[in-house]
Sequence to fold (832 residues):
Amino acid sequence: MNFSKLFLSATLAQCLSLPIRAALPDSVYVFPYPTTNDKGRRGMQLVWSTDREQWHDVAGGMVFLKCDFGPWKHVYRPQLVQDRTDGRWHCFWDLTPDGSAMGSSSSTDLIRWKPQEFFMADEKSRHEVKNARMPVADTVQVGDKTIAGFALKVPYGIVEGLERHGVYRSALNAQRGERAEHDAARFAGLQTVSARITVDEGRAKPISEDLIGVFFEDLNYAADGGLYAELVQNRDFEYSETDGNKDKSWNNRYAWSVEGKGMTFDVSTEQPVHPNNPHYAVLDVAQPGGSFTNTGFDGIAVKEGEKYDFSLFTCTPDGKGGGKSVVRLVDPQGKTVAETTVKLSSKTWKKREAVLKATATVAQARLVIIPQSAGRYALDMISLFPQKTFKGRKNGLRADLAQAIADIRPRFVRFPGGCLAHGDGVDNIYHWKETIGPLEARKPAANIWRYHQTRGLGYFEYFQFCEDIGAEPLPVVAAGVPCQNSGIGGPSHHSKDIVTSLGQQGGIPMEEMGQYVQDVLDLIEYANGDAKTTRWGRERAKAGHPEPFNLKYIGLGNEDLISRVFTERFTMIYEAVRAKYPDIVVIGTTGPSCEGTDYEEGWALADRLKLPMVDEHNYNTPGWYINHQDYYDHYDRSKSKVYLGEYAAHAPGRVNNMETALSTALYLTSIERNGDVVSMASYAPLLAKEGRTQWTPDLIYFNNTDVRLTTDYYVQQLFGRNSGSEYLPSTVLLDRKEKNVRNRVGVSVVKDGESGDLIVKLVNLLPVAVKTDVEIPSLAGHQAVGRKTVLSGRPSDTNAVPVESAMEIGEKFPYEMPAYSFTVIRIKRECK
Ligand code: AHR
Fold:
């Protein structure tokens, strides 16, 4: 890890720049206070003083502790005490303005903190430090604010350490802030750079063959309204105010309306088609002529000549009336572009089906249902699917989007998230069993991203998609705790106070954990169990897939707060899976970032449990990726393997452009080099519907008719299609010594075990070309045929696309890397 290296250089810089103070005090007072103007949302800052009169900022006002509790994350009234027994510093703070709930953590240096504990103030005695050195009450002027708090004496060395840490953070921030827009100044006068690259096939090492995959989460309308090909929005009438959507009309009636006279529309729960789907529409038709309309997801896109499967569940609750209904697709001008009829007469719920054939291409059609007789009709699960889904699957996926994913050639698909997997509160945790079986029996749910999940794209469909594109399935299940930011989803069924209502909410109660552990074991049985002799294997067979899905991996937890509550539950689940399915690779989690408490504690837990793999997340700036290509070089090869489950370069404006694409391409060359410790990596998130995004940047953007691939997509695709099973070390001799130049040139050479092809990847993030002379001695005696694919453009370009061409290859060959480019050279060799 780079921390110590950077820390040492920062320490040195600090030593050189610190004023030499004579007669330093042995100890000084430190006074913690919440960040001002945001009620401690950014966390806790410190000032120090020798006399409690003159106070000085510590490290320029740096934040040393952030609260991790729920969605608020406030630090109110922080107080430091010291445990006399072991010298540790403990911080206590209020989570609420009224002080009814508290947080605590401890540290040896006030920089690195142990996992935070949250408790009600009346339980404080259980958390108190027994043999504590207590602070004194004081009032300090910070800027224009007078703050009442507590000052504690600490050795002066502690403050020096904090100051040094401030220097380290500043150095890190300067690196993180490096942007291509400063390249003209940074590289003023830089002419062409030359490089000699010598590839040593003799020192090849095996690397993961599953390195490049995709991360799928129903975020940005990725599933409903996106990959899941259903065209009717709110087909189940289960949209609800509790989904948390900002739209005031977001309720059971969303996307539906009645046009014309003689008909009313109500939502009932009296006699649902299935208890999991309690709401349904009731149309009271006094006089035929009115129509019941669905607007789809921002319209329904249909293509001339194509067929669409329409279906609905219907009954006549009064047992009277009935007859037929016309079903149409109409364009925005009201012109019919497809028409059919279905029967509505049935005393009990009955599924009716029909096919609509479009006579025109329309981007924004509506679905219209026109009952032909007076009566009272109950309708539910009103659905419209294109027949042309990906691989023609029923209840299938949008063909163009699924194809775009398949075209990356991902070796694995992670699903169903992200935050969606552990959910907004205990009651919103994603339970896979609720997502399989007949669609009307699946349990819809609020989506943590503030919309609705039909669960029509459920575990069966995910597994099937993986199989269809030849990718390993990588389901991620909650580790018995919900997202640490939970709060909007409301309290859980066992909440009793603030602490159990927000954040991890105390996790799934222990008395329910037995069932939860069983659910995780059942998932593995569902994927792999025998179709005849196991209960969940039979369920899979019933869905049409008697053969196992050959599940190898399971993710346990998603960038969780590594709290006591988490650790207890994670360990229970992990031990149970290991005991029953020792061959399944359980992937742990190390928090949301590549450093900090959760990262350290996640790794400590992985070490203790000897986990086969951990999921690291690292959203960072282009500057960070450029400057940390050695991040995995120093990882201990004897420890858990790494799944870099979520990463993306975030530049200002959260754009996808050549700068973000090339900085991750550069980083990916270092990931290939470390493909013996990094087993898998997935850019995140994958999909985003234009106008419906909650998170950017994403890999693929789409609307109802088109798919837009990003520069970052092409990088993933070039790595996915050109991955290897062996890494071939190479020597790269540049004619420039400057670090800024050297760390913007990336080289990775791999060998594809199946075809025997050598693949040279060259990244140039410099504003000038790099003239390379490539030497591959092992090509001697072979006839080599090369093809190169080049992605290049200005750093701010968003529309660059890769260009492929033939290339002459020999044992030695020249190649000029264009400024700001990524080149993949694929070499086939044959004997001469
Ligand atoms: O990828 C988007 C979100 O980022 C994921 O849901 C979460 O795991 C991470 O914070």
Summary: Confidence is low (pLDDT under 50) at residues 1-19. The first strand starts at residue 27 and ends at 34.
